[in-house]
Amino acid sequence: MSTPSAAQSAAQPAAKSAAQPARRGPYAKSRQRRESIVAAAYAVFAAHGYRGGSLQDVADKVGMSQTSLLHYFPSKRDLLLAVLHQRDTITQDGTPRDPEQTLADAVVRQARFNETVPGVIELYTVLCAESVTDNHPGLEYFTERYERLRRSYLRAFTALADEGRLRPGVDPGRAAASLIALWDGIQTQWLMAPERIDMAGCLRDYLDLVVLPA
Amino acid sequence: MSTPSAAQSAAQPAAKSAAQPARRGPYAKSRQRRESIVAAAYAVFAAHGYRGGSLQDVADKVGMSQTSLLHYFPSKRDLLLAVLHQRDTITQDGTPRDPEQTLADAVVRQARFNETVPGVIELYTVLCAESVTDNHPGLEYFTERYERLRRSYLRAFTALADEGRLRPGVDPGRAAASLIALWDGIQTQWLMAPERIDMAGCLRDYLDLVVLPA
DNA sequence: GTCTATACGCTGATAGAC
DNA sequence: GTCTATCAGCGTATAGAC
Protein backbone atom coordinates (compact mmCIF):
# COMPACT_ATOMS: atom_id res chain seq x y z
CA MET A 1 0.00 0.00 0.00
CA SER A 2 2.26 2.79 -1.20
CA THR A 3 1.29 6.36 -0.49
CA PRO A 4 0.80 7.99 -3.88
CA SER A 5 2.52 11.21 -2.89
CA ALA A 6 5.73 9.44 -1.93
CA ALA A 7 7.35 9.44 -5.31
CA GLN A 8 10.82 9.55 -3.82
CA SER A 9 11.24 6.01 -2.66
CA ALA A 10 13.21 3.45 -4.60
CA ALA A 11 11.45 0.59 -6.31
CA GLN A 12 12.98 -2.76 -5.47
CA PRO A 13 16.35 -3.47 -3.90
CA ALA A 14 18.65 -4.43 -6.74
CA ALA A 15 21.77 -6.53 -6.60
CA LYS A 16 24.44 -4.73 -4.61
CA SER A 17 27.35 -5.62 -6.91
CA ALA A 18 26.29 -3.92 -10.13
CA ALA A 19 27.89 -6.36 -12.57
CA GLN A 20 26.38 -5.16 -15.79
CA PRO A 21 26.36 -1.44 -16.55
CA ALA A 22 23.01 0.18 -15.99
CA ARG A 23 20.97 0.56 -19.15
CA ARG A 24 20.51 4.30 -18.93
CA GLY A 25 22.93 6.38 -16.96
CA PRO A 26 24.31 5.71 -13.49
CA TYR A 27 20.92 4.93 -12.03
CA ALA A 28 22.10 1.88 -10.10
CA LYS A 29 24.66 3.81 -8.09
CA SER A 30 22.22 6.58 -7.44
CA ARG A 31 19.60 4.14 -6.23
CA GLN A 32 22.11 2.51 -3.94
CA ARG A 33 23.00 5.91 -2.58
CA ARG A 34 19.38 6.72 -1.94
CA GLU A 35 18.90 3.47 -0.10
CA SER A 36 21.77 4.16 2.25
CA ILE A 37 20.41 7.65 2.89
CA VAL A 38 16.99 6.28 3.74
CA ALA A 39 18.58 3.71 6.06
CA ALA A 40 20.49 6.43 7.87
CA ALA A 41 17.41 8.64 8.09
CA TYR A 42 15.48 5.71 9.45
CA ALA A 43 17.89 5.43 12.35
CA VAL A 44 18.05 9.17 12.97
CA PHE A 45 14.28 9.71 12.95
CA ALA A 46 13.80 6.67 15.19
CA ALA A 47 16.27 7.98 17.75
CA HIS A 48 15.34 11.68 17.67
CA GLY A 49 11.97 11.97 15.99
CA TYR A 50 11.31 14.02 12.87
CA ARG A 51 11.69 17.44 14.48
CA GLY A 52 14.55 16.37 16.69
CA GLY A 53 16.53 14.70 13.94
CA SER A 54 18.47 16.93 11.55
CA LEU A 55 19.60 16.50 7.99
CA GLN A 56 23.11 17.01 9.27
CA ASP A 57 22.77 13.96 11.49
CA VAL A 58 21.68 11.89 8.51
CA ALA A 59 24.42 13.28 6.29
CA ASP A 60 27.08 12.54 8.91
CA LYS A 61 25.83 8.99 9.27
CA VAL A 62 25.95 8.29 5.57
CA GLY A 63 29.23 10.16 5.13
CA MET A 64 28.28 13.01 2.88
CA SER A 65 27.56 16.70 3.15
CA GLN A 66 24.15 17.96 4.11
CA THR A 67 23.73 19.73 0.79
CA SER A 68 24.58 16.62 -1.19
CA LEU A 69 21.87 14.83 0.71
CA LEU A 70 19.40 17.44 -0.48
CA HIS A 71 20.36 16.53 -4.00
CA TYR A 72 18.66 13.15 -3.53
CA PHE A 73 15.78 14.33 -1.38
CA PRO A 74 14.89 17.95 -2.10
CA SER A 75 13.48 18.53 1.37
CA LYS A 76 13.39 17.00 4.80
CA ARG A 77 9.75 16.24 4.26
CA ASP A 78 10.50 14.15 1.20
CA LEU A 79 13.09 12.21 3.16
CA LEU A 80 10.56 11.42 5.86
CA LEU A 81 8.02 10.15 3.36
CA ALA A 82 10.67 7.91 1.83
CA VAL A 83 11.47 6.50 5.26
CA LEU A 84 7.81 5.84 6.03
CA HIS A 85 7.33 4.14 2.71
CA GLN A 86 10.38 2.00 3.28
CA ARG A 87 8.88 0.94 6.60
CA ASP A 88 5.97 -0.64 4.77
CA THR A 89 8.32 -2.92 2.89
CA ILE A 90 9.77 -4.21 6.17
CA THR A 91 6.53 -4.77 8.06
CA GLN A 92 3.44 -6.67 7.00
CA ASP A 93 1.44 -5.49 10.03
CA GLY A 94 0.33 -8.95 11.05
CA THR A 95 -2.00 -9.70 8.19
CA PRO A 96 -1.85 -13.43 7.53
CA ARG A 97 -0.39 -14.12 4.09
CA ASP A 98 -0.64 -17.86 4.31
CA PRO A 99 -4.36 -18.75 4.34
CA GLU A 100 -3.57 -21.68 6.62
CA GLN A 101 -2.11 -19.31 9.23
CA THR A 102 -4.27 -18.18 12.14
CA LEU A 103 -4.80 -14.47 12.66
CA ALA A 104 -3.31 -14.84 16.12
CA ASP A 105 -0.28 -16.64 14.72
CA ALA A 106 0.32 -13.95 12.15
CA VAL A 107 0.05 -11.17 14.72
CA VAL A 108 2.27 -12.90 17.26
CA ARG A 109 4.79 -13.79 14.61
CA GLN A 110 4.99 -10.20 13.40
CA ALA A 111 5.26 -8.87 16.95
CA ARG A 112 8.15 -11.21 17.70
CA PHE A 113 9.85 -10.25 14.46
CA ASN A 114 9.57 -6.55 15.19
CA GLU A 115 11.37 -7.06 18.48
CA THR A 116 14.42 -8.28 16.62
CA VAL A 117 14.74 -5.35 14.25
CA PRO A 118 16.18 -2.41 16.13
CA GLY A 119 14.51 0.89 15.51
CA VAL A 120 11.40 -0.45 13.81
CA ILE A 121 9.20 -0.09 16.87
CA GLU A 122 10.83 3.11 18.00
CA LEU A 123 10.44 4.79 14.62
CA TYR A 124 6.81 3.84 14.41
CA THR A 125 5.90 4.86 17.95
CA VAL A 126 7.74 8.16 17.88
CA LEU A 127 6.65 9.34 14.45
CA CYS A 128 3.07 8.21 14.83
CA ALA A 129 2.44 10.31 17.92
CA GLU A 130 4.51 13.20 16.60
CA SER A 131 2.38 13.24 13.47
CA VAL A 132 -0.70 14.49 15.32
CA THR A 133 1.07 17.78 16.04
CA ASP A 134 1.15 20.88 13.88
CA ASN A 135 1.08 20.26 10.19
CA HIS A 136 3.35 17.29 10.51
CA PRO A 137 4.21 15.74 7.14
CA GLY A 138 3.53 12.25 8.44
CA LEU A 139 -0.09 12.72 9.49
CA GLU A 140 -1.59 11.59 6.21
CA TYR A 141 0.51 8.45 6.17
CA PHE A 142 -0.52 7.37 9.65
CA THR A 143 -4.17 8.30 9.21
CA GLU A 144 -4.42 6.22 6.06
CA ARG A 145 -2.47 3.41 7.64
CA TYR A 146 -4.92 3.22 10.54
CA GLU A 147 -7.92 3.19 8.23
CA ARG A 148 -6.40 0.50 6.10
CA LEU A 149 -5.45 -1.61 9.09
CA ARG A 150 -8.88 -1.28 10.68
CA ARG A 151 -10.51 -2.40 7.45
CA SER A 152 -8.14 -5.32 7.22
CA TYR A 153 -8.80 -6.58 10.75
CA LEU A 154 -12.49 -5.86 10.40
CA ARG A 155 -12.55 -8.25 7.45
CA ALA A 156 -10.68 -10.87 9.45
CA PHE A 157 -12.99 -10.62 12.47
CA THR A 158 -16.08 -10.57 10.28
CA ALA A 159 -14.94 -13.75 8.57
CA LEU A 160 -14.41 -15.36 11.96
CA ALA A 161 -17.85 -14.21 13.07
CA ASP A 162 -19.38 -15.87 10.01
CA GLU A 163 -17.76 -19.12 11.11
CA GLY A 164 -19.19 -18.61 14.57
CA ARG A 165 -15.69 -18.30 15.95
CA LEU A 166 -16.02 -14.80 17.39
CA ARG A 167 -16.98 -14.69 21.03
CA PRO A 168 -20.65 -13.69 21.33
CA GLY A 169 -21.09 -10.01 22.08
CA VAL A 170 -17.82 -8.95 20.48
CA ASP A 171 -18.20 -6.18 17.92
CA PRO A 172 -15.87 -6.79 14.96
CA GLY A 173 -15.32 -3.11 14.31
CA ARG A 174 -14.36 -2.19 17.84
CA ALA A 175 -12.29 -5.34 18.12
CA ALA A 176 -10.31 -4.31 15.05
CA ALA A 177 -9.56 -0.88 16.50
CA SER A 178 -8.81 -2.43 19.88
CA LEU A 179 -6.33 -4.93 18.51
CA ILE A 180 -4.40 -2.18 16.76
CA ALA A 181 -4.59 0.01 19.85
CA LEU A 182 -3.35 -2.75 22.11
CA TRP A 183 -0.49 -3.44 19.77
CA ASP A 184 0.56 0.20 19.57
CA GLY A 185 0.25 0.76 23.28
CA ILE A 186 2.13 -2.30 24.32
CA GLN A 187 4.98 -1.28 22.04
CA THR A 188 5.29 2.01 23.89
CA GLN A 189 5.51 0.26 27.24
CA TRP A 190 7.97 -2.23 25.79
CA LEU A 191 10.24 0.59 24.63
CA MET A 192 10.45 1.90 28.18
CA ALA A 193 10.79 -1.48 29.91
CA PRO A 194 11.61 -4.25 27.41
CA GLU A 195 12.34 -6.83 30.09
CA ARG A 196 9.01 -6.32 31.85
CA ILE A 197 6.64 -6.34 28.90
CA ASP A 198 5.64 -9.42 26.96
CA MET A 199 4.30 -7.94 23.75
CA ALA A 200 3.52 -11.19 22.00
CA GLY A 201 1.93 -12.58 25.17
CA CYS A 202 -0.45 -9.65 25.55
CA LEU A 203 -1.51 -9.84 21.91
CA ARG A 204 -1.99 -13.60 22.16
CA ASP A 205 -4.07 -13.13 25.32
CA TYR A 206 -6.36 -10.65 23.65
CA LEU A 207 -6.94 -12.75 20.56
CA ASP A 208 -7.57 -15.84 22.71
CA LEU A 209 -10.25 -13.85 24.49
CA VAL A 210 -11.92 -12.62 21.33
CA VAL A 211 -11.52 -15.57 18.98
CA LEU A 212 -12.97 -18.95 19.96
CA PRO A 213 -10.97 -22.11 19.21
CA ALA A 214 -11.75 -23.78 15.92
CA MET B 1 1.80 11.06 42.91
CA SER B 2 4.04 14.04 42.51
CA THR B 3 7.44 13.60 41.01
CA PRO B 4 9.93 14.71 43.67
CA SER B 5 12.16 16.51 41.21
CA ALA B 6 9.35 18.76 40.03
CA ALA B 7 9.66 21.44 42.68
CA GLN B 8 8.41 24.11 40.32
CA SER B 9 4.74 23.43 40.27
CA ALA B 10 2.30 25.39 42.34
CA ALA B 11 0.51 23.79 45.26
CA GLN B 12 -3.22 24.41 45.19
CA PRO B 13 -5.10 26.84 43.00
CA ALA B 14 -5.88 29.84 45.14
CA ALA B 15 -8.74 32.31 44.80
CA LYS B 16 -8.30 34.41 41.69
CA SER B 17 -9.31 37.73 43.20
CA ALA B 18 -6.65 38.19 45.88
CA ALA B 19 -8.70 40.17 48.39
CA GLN B 20 -6.36 40.14 51.33
CA PRO B 21 -2.70 40.97 50.78
CA ALA B 22 -0.44 37.95 50.82
CA ARG B 23 1.20 37.32 54.16
CA ARG B 24 4.76 37.38 52.98
CA GLY B 25 5.62 39.26 49.81
CA PRO B 26 3.79 39.08 46.50
CA TYR B 27 3.65 35.30 46.46
CA ALA B 28 0.01 35.11 45.45
CA LYS B 29 0.52 37.11 42.27
CA SER B 30 3.61 35.15 41.42
CA ARG B 31 1.79 31.87 41.87
CA GLN B 32 -1.03 33.08 39.69
CA ARG B 33 1.48 34.06 37.05
CA ARG B 34 3.10 30.67 37.19
CA GLU B 35 -0.23 28.97 36.78
CA SER B 36 -1.08 30.93 33.67
CA ILE B 37 2.34 30.11 32.24
CA VAL B 38 1.86 26.42 32.88
CA ALA B 39 -1.58 26.57 31.28
CA ALA B 40 -0.13 28.22 28.19
CA ALA B 41 2.74 25.76 28.05
CA TYR B 42 0.24 22.94 28.36
CA ALA B 43 -1.51 24.08 25.20
CA VAL B 44 1.70 24.74 23.31
CA PHE B 45 3.30 21.39 24.13
CA ALA B 46 0.06 19.60 23.31
CA ALA B 47 -0.15 21.22 19.90
CA HIS B 48 3.52 21.11 18.92
CA GLY B 49 5.25 18.65 21.23
CA TYR B 50 8.15 19.49 23.50
CA ARG B 51 10.74 19.96 20.76
CA GLY B 52 8.31 21.62 18.40
CA GLY B 53 6.95 24.08 20.93
CA SER B 54 9.05 27.11 21.74
CA LEU B 55 9.32 29.30 24.80
CA GLN B 56 8.40 32.19 22.55
CA ASP B 57 5.11 30.50 21.71
CA VAL B 58 4.34 30.13 25.40
CA ALA B 59 5.40 33.69 26.17
CA ASP B 60 3.24 35.08 23.38
CA LYS B 61 0.26 33.11 24.61
CA VAL B 62 0.59 34.38 28.15
CA GLY B 63 1.44 37.91 27.03
CA MET B 64 4.96 38.37 28.29
CA SER B 65 8.47 38.32 26.95
CA GLN B 66 10.36 35.09 26.58
CA THR B 67 13.02 36.18 29.05
CA SER B 68 10.45 37.07 31.66
CA LEU B 69 9.10 33.58 31.32
CA LEU B 70 12.52 32.20 32.14
CA HIS B 71 12.36 34.14 35.36
CA TYR B 72 9.63 31.78 36.57
CA PHE B 73 10.96 28.59 35.00
CA PRO B 74 14.74 28.74 34.64
CA SER B 75 14.74 26.35 31.69
CA LYS B 76 12.44 24.78 29.15
CA ARG B 77 12.97 21.47 30.88
CA ASP B 78 11.64 22.83 34.17
CA LEU B 79 8.59 24.15 32.40
CA LEU B 80 7.88 20.74 30.91
CA LEU B 81 8.12 19.04 34.28
CA ALA B 82 5.70 21.57 35.73
CA VAL B 83 3.27 20.84 32.91
CA LEU B 84 3.52 17.09 33.44
CA HIS B 85 2.98 17.47 37.14
CA GLN B 86 -0.03 19.64 36.54
CA ARG B 87 -1.43 16.93 34.31
CA ASP B 88 -1.57 14.58 37.29
CA THR B 89 -3.87 16.95 39.13
CA ILE B 90 -6.35 16.89 36.24
CA THR B 91 -6.41 13.17 35.59
CA GLN B 92 -6.99 10.30 38.01
CA ASP B 93 -6.11 7.63 35.41
CA GLY B 94 -9.23 5.60 36.01
CA THR B 95 -8.47 4.29 39.45
CA PRO B 96 -11.77 3.92 41.30
CA ARG B 97 -11.96 6.35 44.21
CA ASP B 98 -15.35 5.29 45.41
CA PRO B 99 -15.08 1.68 46.67
CA GLU B 100 -18.60 1.06 45.40
CA GLN B 101 -17.53 1.95 41.88
CA THR B 102 -16.63 -0.82 39.44
CA LEU B 103 -13.20 -0.76 37.83
CA ALA B 104 -14.88 -0.66 34.45
CA ASP B 105 -17.07 2.24 35.52
CA ALA B 106 -14.09 4.21 36.75
CA VAL B 107 -12.13 3.62 33.56
CA VAL B 108 -15.04 4.44 31.27
CA ARG B 109 -15.91 7.50 33.30
CA GLN B 110 -12.36 8.80 33.10
CA ALA B 111 -12.15 8.08 29.38
CA ARG B 112 -15.35 10.02 28.76
CA PHE B 113 -14.12 12.90 30.88
CA ASN B 114 -10.82 13.11 29.03
CA GLU B 115 -12.69 13.53 25.75
CA THR B 116 -14.22 16.73 27.05
CA VAL B 117 -11.00 18.42 28.09
CA PRO B 118 -9.22 19.68 25.01
CA GLY B 119 -5.54 18.99 24.86
CA VAL B 120 -5.40 16.47 27.67
CA ILE B 121 -5.24 13.45 25.38
CA GLU B 122 -3.09 15.19 22.83
CA LEU B 123 -0.52 16.33 25.37
CA TYR B 124 -0.27 12.90 26.86
CA THR B 125 -0.01 11.02 23.58
CA VAL B 126 2.49 13.37 22.00
CA LEU B 127 4.82 13.79 24.94
CA CYS B 128 4.73 10.15 25.96
CA ALA B 129 6.01 8.90 22.62
CA GLU B 130 8.41 11.82 22.25
CA SER B 131 9.92 10.96 25.62
CA VAL B 132 11.48 7.75 24.32
CA THR B 133 13.79 9.76 22.08
CA ASP B 134 17.18 11.18 22.90
CA ASN B 135 17.61 12.24 26.48
CA HIS B 136 14.13 13.65 26.62
CA PRO B 137 13.36 15.32 29.97
CA GLY B 138 10.00 13.57 30.18
CA LEU B 139 11.22 9.98 30.04
CA GLU B 140 11.51 9.50 33.79
CA TYR B 141 8.00 10.83 34.33
CA PHE B 142 6.39 8.47 31.86
CA THR B 143 8.44 5.47 32.90
CA GLU B 144 7.44 5.91 36.52
CA ARG B 145 3.86 6.60 35.55
CA TYR B 146 3.64 3.33 33.66
CA GLU B 147 5.12 1.37 36.54
CA ARG B 148 2.75 2.96 39.00
CA LEU B 149 -0.26 2.38 36.77
CA ARG B 150 0.64 -1.25 36.14
CA ARG B 151 0.95 -1.85 39.87
CA SER B 152 -2.39 -0.16 40.45
CA TYR B 153 -4.28 -2.23 37.89
CA LEU B 154 -2.43 -5.36 38.94
CA ARG B 155 -3.85 -4.87 42.43
CA ALA B 156 -7.32 -4.35 41.03
CA PHE B 157 -7.20 -7.46 38.83
CA THR B 158 -5.67 -9.55 41.62
CA ALA B 159 -8.46 -8.52 43.95
CA LEU B 160 -11.00 -9.51 41.31
CA ALA B 161 -9.23 -12.82 40.81
CA ASP B 162 -9.49 -13.49 44.54
CA GLU B 163 -13.24 -13.04 44.25
CA GLY B 164 -13.27 -15.44 41.34
CA ARG B 165 -14.38 -12.65 39.05
CA LEU B 166 -11.46 -12.77 36.65
CA ARG B 167 -12.03 -14.90 33.57
CA PRO B 168 -10.09 -18.16 33.93
CA GLY B 169 -6.78 -18.10 32.12
CA VAL B 170 -6.36 -14.33 32.32
CA ASP B 171 -3.03 -13.27 33.78
CA PRO B 172 -3.49 -10.22 36.04
CA GLY B 173 -0.09 -8.77 35.20
CA ARG B 174 -0.45 -8.94 31.45
CA ALA B 175 -4.05 -7.75 31.74
CA ALA B 176 -2.87 -4.66 33.63
CA ALA B 177 -0.32 -3.81 30.95
CA SER B 178 -2.86 -4.59 28.24
CA LEU B 179 -5.53 -2.33 29.67
CA ILE B 180 -3.10 0.59 29.79
CA ALA B 181 -1.86 -0.22 26.30
CA LEU B 182 -5.36 -0.41 24.90
CA TRP B 183 -6.21 2.90 26.49
CA ASP B 184 -3.13 4.64 25.13
CA GLY B 185 -3.50 3.18 21.69
CA ILE B 186 -7.16 3.96 21.31
CA GLN B 187 -6.45 7.56 22.25
CA THR B 188 -4.01 7.84 19.36
CA GLN B 189 -6.58 6.56 16.90
CA TRP B 190 -9.20 8.83 18.39
CA LEU B 191 -6.96 11.87 17.87
CA MET B 192 -6.76 11.08 14.17
CA ALA B 193 -10.44 10.14 13.69
CA PRO B 194 -12.55 11.22 16.67
CA GLU B 195 -15.84 10.46 14.95
CA ARG B 196 -14.88 6.89 14.07
CA ILE B 197 -13.40 5.73 17.36
CA ASP B 198 -15.43 4.87 20.44
CA MET B 199 -12.82 5.04 23.19
CA ALA B 200 -15.11 4.29 26.08
CA GLY B 201 -16.75 1.48 24.14
CA CYS B 202 -13.47 -0.26 23.41
CA LEU B 203 -12.37 -0.03 27.03
CA ARG B 204 -15.75 -1.30 28.22
CA ASP B 205 -15.54 -4.20 25.75
CA TYR B 206 -12.14 -5.24 27.02
CA LEU B 207 -13.08 -5.13 30.68
CA ASP B 208 -16.29 -7.03 29.96
CA LEU B 209 -14.16 -9.73 28.38
CA VAL B 210 -11.70 -9.94 31.25
CA VAL B 211 -13.92 -9.34 34.27
CA LEU B 212 -16.85 -11.66 34.95
CA PRO B 213 -20.14 -10.17 36.16
CA ALA B 214 -20.58 -10.08 39.93
C1' DG C 1 9.87 41.42 37.87
C1' DT C 2 10.06 42.99 33.45
C1' DC C 3 12.23 44.40 29.81
C1' DT C 4 15.92 45.11 25.63
C1' DA C 5 19.91 43.54 23.76
C1' DT C 6 22.44 39.94 22.59
C1' DA C 7 25.28 35.75 22.59
C1' DC C 8 25.71 31.58 20.25
C1' DG C 9 24.44 27.50 18.07
C1' DC C 10 21.85 25.03 14.90
C1' DT C 11 18.19 24.61 11.41
C1' DG C 12 16.67 23.72 6.45
C1' DA C 13 17.54 25.39 2.13
C1' DT C 14 19.88 28.00 -1.98
C1' DA C 15 23.71 29.50 -5.27
C1' DG C 16 27.20 28.35 -7.74
C1' DA C 17 32.16 26.56 -8.48
C1' DC C 18 34.22 22.27 -9.77
C1' DG D 1 27.04 14.71 -8.16
C1' DT D 2 29.60 16.71 -4.79
C1' DC D 3 31.31 20.22 -2.61
C1' DT D 4 32.07 25.15 -0.01
C1' DA D 5 30.04 29.23 1.11
C1' DT D 6 26.25 31.36 2.64
C1' DC D 7 21.57 32.77 3.72
C1' DA D 8 17.87 33.87 6.68
C1' DG D 9 15.64 32.34 10.55
C1' DC D 10 14.70 30.45 14.96
C1' DG D 11 16.12 28.07 19.28
C1' DT D 12 17.44 28.56 24.38
C1' DA D 13 19.70 31.05 27.51
C1' DT D 14 22.44 35.03 29.71
C1' DA D 15 23.66 39.96 31.04
C1' DG D 16 22.27 43.85 32.70
C1' DA D 17 19.40 48.33 32.66
C1' DC D 18 15.23 49.96 34.74
From TrEMBL, chains A, B:
HTH tetR-type domain sequence ranges: 31-91
Entry keyword set: DNA-binding, Repressor, Transcription, Transcription regulation
Kinase is among the record's keywords: no
GO terms assigned for molecular function: DNA-binding transcription factor activity; transcription cis-regulatory region binding
Ranges that cross the membrane: none
Recorded superkingdom: Bacteria
InterPro entries per the UniProt record, alphabetical: BetI_C (IPR039538), Homeodomain-like_sf (IPR009057), HTH-type_TetR-like_transc_reg (IPR050109), HTH_TetR (IPR001647), Tet_transcr_reg_TetR-rel_C_sf (IPR036271)
Renumbered residue ranges of the record's region Disordered: 1-31
Biased composition, class Low complexity, residue ranges: 1-22
PROSITE patterns from the UniProt entry: HTH_TETR_2
Record PANTHER family: HTH-TYPE TRANSCRIPTIONAL REGULATOR PKSA, HTH-TYPE TRANSCRIPTIONAL REGULATOR RUTR
Name this polypeptide is given: TetR/AcrR family transcriptional regulator
Protein's organism: Arthrobacter wenxiniae
